[in-house]
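Dear H.,

Thanks for agreeing to be a second pair of eyes. The structure we're designing against is below in token form, covering all 127 positions.
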């Protein structure tokens, strides 16, 4: 395993604890395009999430903006919980959605809201 893939797997396990077994050394699978997970480990989590210059919280904000704009709902299912792991609050995630309505439009944000409602814990409202 290259250094970037090894570091990427470490970061992936930190950002999404419990998603893959602790002893896993790969995200490769035997299905169609089974090496996609490995490419993500090496190039995204190993090379990008480990760069100096932005902390993980800031990287989560940037990543959420891009994924919402792209309407990448499958990726948002992972990155909303990653954002919580990186210190963002539910209220801050809501503000990200509100802010993006003006930049990427209501349909993209509405789609992201549906994903958030699926994967995030419910927001506690004051009575």
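And this is the sequence the design step returned. I haven't edited it by hand at all.
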């Amino acid at each position: 395993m290259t250094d970037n893939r090894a570091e990427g797997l470490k970061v992936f396990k930190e950002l999404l604890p419990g998603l893959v077994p602790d002893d896993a050394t790969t995200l490769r699978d035997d299905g169609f395009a089974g090496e996609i997970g490995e490419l993500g480990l090496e190039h995204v989590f190993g090379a990008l999430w480990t760069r100096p210059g932005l902390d993980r919280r800031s990287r989560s904000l940037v990543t959420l903006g891009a994924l919402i704009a792209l309407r990448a709902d499958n990726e948002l299912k992972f990155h909303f919980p990653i954002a919580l792991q990186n210190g963002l609050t539910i209220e801050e995630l809501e503000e990200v959605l509100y802010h993006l309505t003006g930049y990427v439009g209501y349909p993209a944000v509405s789609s992201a809201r549906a994903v958030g409602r699926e994967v995030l814990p419910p927001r506690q409202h004051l009575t």
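Two observations from my side: The mean pLDDT is 92. The chain is about 65% helix and 0% strand.

Warmly,
E.
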